[in-house]
Specification:
The complex is a heterodimer of chains A (about 425) and B (about 550). Chain A is α/β, with parallel strands linked by helices. Chain A is about 50% helix and about 10% strand. In chain A, strands 1, 2, 3, 4, 5, 6, 7, 8 and 9 form a 9-stranded mixed beta sheet that branches. An 8-stranded parallel beta barrel of chain B has the order 1-2-3-7-8-9-10-14. Chain B is globular, with a radius of gyration of 24 Å. Classes of the chains: A alpha/beta (about 425), B alpha/beta (about 550).
Chain lengths: ~425, ~550
């Protein structure tokens, strides 16, 4: 049985009024008043346009917003107390609940999953409140495969700037593809959809009191679907627009991505150590996914942080990395910025050695993950340099080279995982 | 005041719609008749209805089930004689049953002597009784109603070599209401029946009486003027008689037919009916409350006429495209079930013969603001025959018992005006009055009880309505109020059990008394009143201060 105690009595009362639904769209928020109104109105338009007959609900799981976010979500309701809406066949509830504890996307997802389970939603989509480029068509592209084609997880493919999502392109995507044999471009999605089957399974997992139940939970959901060999599909959504936001905390991001990947590899070795057929994840309507607008990046600072990390974390790296890898990285740290490059095979071996160190817990696991940050900066610098003047196809080819390196080095992963160094 | 002396009697009416031809054949010729209908007045009285609405019984070629009249002043010999009608009317009145008859003002049959004269030559004195034209391009903005059969509103007359105007079938030429002689003659026809004692007219197809270039030829001021004149004459010469409008229009357009209370007394609420079906299928009250919100207030002396099914298709003209597609997909999966812009099916088959849904729909019909109409046979759950053409599938003989011809006629089955229903679910051996009279829990017995309770209070017919809008959208709740009497109606539109919290603070301290079982429910307090309801269940509560 799912833990319904996370749902407040008031929220359960509201869910009783909603009743069984076909579609649930979840919107996790925390002080998103600037954008969430536009997002829920688009969700509503998408539901009315593409699923007019479906029993639908929009559910906002909010982390203590104080800027009116929740009111904006509730304003998207269509019911007979707020005037006529002849374009809608049905009532559409748009309700909001505030979950306990500090704001965390995992807790929000937990709330959404529990609500979906209670309402027996056949399909559930989650959209980011910051997705300012969200269009009604996104709702159709995310939910249609679940409703009409029996797909369990629909992941987005966005048209991103060539330098956006460096962690995804250089680590999360290649590792997921090489280790688990599933080619999904956005394993850590902010706009996605899943079936009741996958949702219930995920809800019943024992993760909600652990870190992956609070942060990086969306990636864990993807990994759960891949490991469980659920039916996965990708949908091209278009440009991913977001508000200008302060630089993200890379340590935190590394925990949510590399940390979770290593954790899943540790928890489910049978899912990747034995040879398995690749898990297909076809992409519906995929188009070129890279945009090329000029962008200023501070390569010098990345270089400094890499070299500084190599020198400062020498003892840590000694316990994590093999001697040849460590030596090679140290050598790279001596190169001037304009000659610096962390090649794909070395990067793949480095990441795999970190995964093995995490597995063997040679030092505190969180320290292992944190120590990867400066090395990733070196890899990011390499990617930026390589693709500075590259066209779309060349960038795609370079991303493919990273993935192939990780795939080629998978035997090395198996080797180091079991103690070889 | 006794009902029979009350000028607003139609507000308390429970109307039963019947076709003389379909009810009981006393002569054994295969057609129902007035003598047969008179024999069954005991049944109708026992059912509890107090008003009969008869479909057209005038001489007619019967190419539109009698709506193509060829003589307005007598009875079709198939149904008996004028004396038979007079006798029926007298016996009905003795039982306290009023009689509404049809008056087709808009058009006649092309076999009517007026039209025969009119078409005979362009100089005939009756030429101007119909609408003639040298071209078929006049009134271009006018829609075609019978889309499945008609290509134009004009038909070529090879005799007088002009086009004549028809809004319905081409064998139903429209009368020219701009001609004072036509107005005079039609009022004379109405007087003929009023003098005999009929209580009311259902005026057929009223929006289309007058045509004007550059308009859609519907709801024109000139048409309203015609109605006002008729009403004024009726009130002056026959007070207490009633006019009922058949105008398949949006509520805002319909409102004009009440005017200031000096046009129609009653009008059918066409847009509500499909939305009741939609609400139950969607399990959502939104379509119902939405259309009632758009329904304007009407004068004190006027009333809406509500129905679930009638002799026509379930019309989907007054719904959006989205709603129409939904209704077709949910209620008319087979093409043969569709006709024009509607669905030609009876109540029970539309609701999958689900007793709970049939009860819920009738419960709503009887408790919403307006006068309810029951279509003959729906009180026992009769089925339809979609294999018969046009709308004949919902006009099959009444099923009285499981014997010869279902008790309808002693004629050979082949001689019946329509085949009987024979299938094992809806056939006369499975569904008939006699068998349902034997059980206290039959649909017929339940309908009798429902009508009795409806008639036990004037609130339903005359009271105000206030919707409660509980947060559970599957529940439709409203309060009906008249004077000191207050009734709470709660309908669960869902196929599953529901909990609903009602804001009844305004009635704090009162108790609820359920009207069917007369059981007392807990006192209303400060908190929202919690009710749990079974699938498709409905409650009628009297709110009483103790």
């Amino acid at each position: 049985m799912p833990d319904e105690s996370i749902l407040s009595d008031e929220f359960i009362r509201e869910l009783i009024n909603v009743g069984e639904v076909d579609i649930l769209v979840g919107v996790p928020t925390h002080n998103d008043a600037r954008t969430v109104g536009q997002v829920v109105q688009c969700v509503r338009a998408g539901l009315l346009k593409y699923f007019p007959r479906a029993r639908s609900v929009i559910i906002n799981a909010d982390g203590s917003s104080r800027d009116g976010t929740r009111d904006l979500v509730c304003a998207a309701s269509i019911n007979d107390t707020v005037g006529s809406n002849l374009s809608a066949l049905r009532t559409l509830h748009s309700i909001s609940t505030e979950y306990d504890g500090a704001p965390a996307s995992g807790t929000a997802l937990h709330t959404i999953l529990a609500a979906a389970d209670l309402l027996q939603a056949k399909a559930c989509a989650v959209v980011s409140p910051e997705s300012t480029s969200l269009e009604p068509e996104w709702i159709e592209r995310l939910l249609r495969p679940v409703i009409r084609e029996g797909v369990d997880l629909v992941l987005p493919v966005y048209r991103r700037h060539k330098f956006d999502g460096l962690l995804i392109r250089n680590l999360v995507y290649p590792v997921t593809r090489a280790v688990y044999g599933c080619t999904v471009r956005e394993p850590y999605p902010s706009d996605y959809a899943f079936s009741s089957n996958l949702g219930s399974n995920f809800l019943n997992q024992d993760l909600w009191k652990q870190e992956q139940g609070r942060h990086g939970t969306e990636l864990w959901l993807t990994l759960t679907a891949i490991i469980g060999r659920y039916k996965i599909q990708q949908s091209f959504l278009g440009v991913r627009g977001r508000l200008e936001s302060p630089p993200s905390d890379l340590v935190m991001a590394m925990r949510e991505t590399a940390g979770l990947l290593f954790c899943s590899m540790d928890c489910y070795p049978a899912a990747w150590k034995e040879p398995r057929e690749p898990l297909p994840a076809p992409c519906g309507g995929c188009q070129p996914a890279i945009s090329l607008e000029p962008m200023r990046v501070n390569r010098k600072r990345l270089h400094q942080m890499f070299t500084f990390g190599i020198s400062q974390l020498e003892p840590v790296f000694s316990s994590i990395l093999s001697a040849p890898t460590h030596e090679e990285l140290k050598r790279l740290a001596t190169l001037p910025e304009n000659e610096f490059a962390l090649p794909e095979p070395l990067w793949a071996r480095t990441v795999y050695e970190f995964a093995a160190a995490y597995h063997r817990a040679v030092i505190g696991r969180d320290h292992v993950v944190q120590a990867l940050v400066p090395l990733f900066r070196g890899r990011a610098l390499t990617f930026l340099t390589e693709n500075r003047d590259a066209e779309e196809t060349e960038i795609e080819s370079n991303i493919e080279k990273i993935c192939q390196a990780f795939e080629a080095e998978k035997p090395y992963l198996l080797h180091v995982w079991d103690g070889g160094k | 005041m006794p009902v029979q002396q009350d000028a607003l009697w139609y507000k308390d009416a429970v109307i039963y719609q019947v076709h003389v031809r379909s009810f009981l054949d006393s002569s054994g010729d295969g057609n129902g008749d007035f003598r047969g209908l008179a024999q069954k007045l005991d049944y109708l009285q026992d059912l509890g209805i107090n008003t009969l609405w008869l479909m057209p019984f005038f001489p007619s070629p019967l190419r539109d089930d009698g709506y193509d009249i060829s003589d307005y002043r007598t009875v079709n010999p198939l149904y008996g004689t004028l004396d038979d009608f007079k006798n029926f009317l007298e016996v009905a009145h003795k039982r306290g049953i009023r009689v509404i008859i049809e008056m087709v003002l808009n058009h006649t049959s092309d076999q009517h002597p007026w039209f025969q004269e009119s078409r005979s030559s362009r100089s005939n004195p009756r030429r101007d009784w119909y609408v003639w034209s040298d071209t078929d391009t006049k009134y271009k903005g006018t829609r075609i109603i019978f889309l499945d059969t008609e290509l134009s509103n004009w038909a070529w007359d090879p005799v007088s070599k002009q086009y004549y105007w028809h809004r319905f079938f081409s064998h139903q030429p429209d009368l020219n209401w701009d001609n004072p002689a036509v107005r005079e003659e039609m009022w004379d026809v109405m007087k003929f029946w009023l003098n005999m004692g009929v209580d009311a007219f259902r005026l057929d197809a009223v929006p289309y009486l007058v045509e004007r270039e550059g308009t859609n030829c519907e709801n024109l001021p000139e048409t309203h003027s015609v109605i006002k004149d008729l009403r004024a004459q009726l009130d002056r010469e026959y007070p207490g008689r009633m006019l009922l409008a058949e105008a398949n229009q949006w509520p805002s357009d319909l409102r004009a037919y009440f005017s200031t209370g000096d046009e129609f007394h009653m009008a059918f609420h066409f847009p509500l009916m499909p939305r009741m079906f939609m609400g139950v299928k969607l399990e959502d009250r939104k379509p119902i409350t939405e259309i009632l919100k758009q329904t304007p207030e009407i004068p004190e002396n006027c009333q809406w006429c509500l129905f679930l099914r009638n002799h026509d298709e379930l019309t989907l003209e007054m719904v959006t495209d989205l709603e129409r597609d939904y209704m077709y997909d949910e209620y008319a999966k087979e093409k043969a079930m569709r006709l024009n812009l509607g669905i030609r099916r009876r109540l029970a088959p539309l609701l999958d013969n689900d007793r709970r849904r049939i009860e819920l729909m009738n419960g709503m019909l009887m408790s919403m603001p307006g006068t309810p109409i029951i279509y003959y046979g729906d009180e026992i759950g009769m089925g339809d025959n979609i294999n018969l053409g046009d709308r004949n599938g919902v006009r099959t003989p009444m099923q009285w018992d499981g014997g010869w011809n279902g008790g309808f006629s002693t004629a050979d089955p082949e001689a019946l005006y329509s085949p009987l229903m024979l299938n094992p679910v809806y056939g006369f051996q499975a569904v008939n009055v006699q068998s349902q009279k034997r059980f206290d829990h039959s649909l017929l017995a339940w309908m009798k009880r429902l009508i009795k309770i409806r008639k036990s209070t004037a609130v339903f017919g005359r009271g105000s309505i206030q919707f409660l809008y509980p947060a559970n959208h599957r529940v439709l709740a409203y309060v009906r109020k008249l004077g000191n009497e207050t009734i709470l109606v709660v309908n669960n539109l869902s196929s599953s059990a529901q909990a609903v919290e009602l804001d009844l603070k305004a009635y704090k301290g009162n108790i609820l008394v359920e009207m069917f079982g007369r059981n007392v429910f807990p006192r209303i307090g400060e908190l929202p009143y919690l009710l749990t309801m079974g699938p498709y269940q409905f409650y009628w509560f009297k709110i009483r201060r103790v």
